[in-house]
Each structure stands twice: as C-alpha cells, then as structure tokens.
C-alpha cells in the first residue's frame, strides 16, 4: 500500500475495541429495524395519504416485519462466508434505495412487495450487525449491547 492509501485507511478505520466501533456497530445492527418505531405513523400515512384501506396498510406493515425476520434468517447462512463490511455497505445502500423507491409506489400490492423486500434487506443487515457483535471480544460486547439499546430507544423517541 502507498502512504496515501495508508492515511486514507487510517482515517476510515475505528479502533476495534473502541467506543466509536461499538457505536457504529450498534447503529449497523439496528438500522434495518428503525421503521418499527414509527410503524403506526406509516400505516396511518398509507391510509390517509395514499388512500389504502386499513387492511392493505396492515399488510404493508406485516410484510415489512415478516421480511425482516426472513432476512435475519438468511443472514445466518451467509454472514460467515462474506466480508461483513462490504455486505453492510451494500445492504445499507439497498435499504436506502428500497425506501426511495417506496416513495414512488401508489399501488397497495406493489407496496406490499416493496416493503417485503425492504424488510428482508433490513433483516439481513440486522443479522449481519449482530453477528459481528457476537463474534467480538468480550471487551466490546457490553458497550455494543448498551449502544444498541440506546440507538433503538433514540429511534423510538424521534
């Protein structure tokens, strides 16, 4: 590696046992589930804004949650075979794309499919994040668990 590459890598690397790494891992592990805290508002928005029936809006919410469970299950099978950093970046980008595409959808059936995909991506991200935390040395597990709880609580208060 060149000196410039070394400096760039040092800039983008957190100490593995440090607080920054713990905080980043906690957000990674919960990023795919932040929508759960605002699910009631999302369902209400679908009913009032897009004129979905309550049943259709409920199916959208359910698809997202079931997708998350399915995605976490999928993560169990691939997480040890892939680079978790690259996979996490890819999943975060895919999650953002799914959210952006969701803003363009007006049809309930298409929205259910999109939110199922979103939930699956989010679940894979959560599974990947918690897998990294689980494999961490004991010195990092407690801060990560604490930060994970805090990030979930903060998302709920937003």
What does this structure look like?
It contains 7 helices and no strands. The protein is mainly alpha-helical and 158 residues long. It has a domain of 95 residues. Helix 2 packs antiparallel against helix 6 and helix 2 packs across helix 7.
Keywords:
158 residues
Task: Describe, in short, the structure shown.
The chain is an all-alpha fold and 158 residues long. The protein contains seven helices and no strands.
Order of helices and strands: HHHHHHH
User: What would you call the structural class?
Assistant: mainly alpha
Oligomer: single chain
Helical region count? 7
Overall mean pLDDT: 82
Low-confidence stretches: none
Strand content: under 5%
Major sheet description: none
Helix percent reads over 70%
Inertia-based shape: elongated
Give the tally of β-strands.
Answer: 0
List the helices and strands and how they pair.
Layout: H1 3-11, H2 19-30, H3 39-49, H4 54-78, H5 84-102, H6 108-135, H7 138-157
């Amino acid at each position: 590696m060149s000196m410039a590459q070394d400096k760039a890598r040092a800039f983008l690397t957190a100490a593995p046992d440090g607080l920054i790494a713990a905080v980043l891992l906690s957000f990674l592990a919960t990023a795919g589930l932040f929508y759960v805290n605002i699910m009631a508002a999302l369902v209400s928005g679908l009913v009032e804004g897009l004129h979905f029936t309550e049943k259709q809006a409920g199916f959208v919410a359910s698809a997202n949650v079931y997708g998350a469970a399915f995605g976490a299950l999928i993560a169990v099978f691939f997480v040890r075979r892939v680079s978790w950093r690259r996979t996490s970046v890819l999943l975060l980008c895919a999650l953002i794309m799914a959210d952006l595409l969701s803003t363009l959808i007006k049809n309930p059936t298409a929205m259910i499919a999109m939110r199922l995909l979103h939930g699956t991506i989010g679940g894979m991200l959560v599974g990947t994040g918690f897998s990294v935390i689980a494999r961490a040395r004991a010195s990092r597990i407690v801060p990560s668990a604490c930060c994970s709880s805090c990030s979930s609580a903060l998302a709920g208060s937003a």
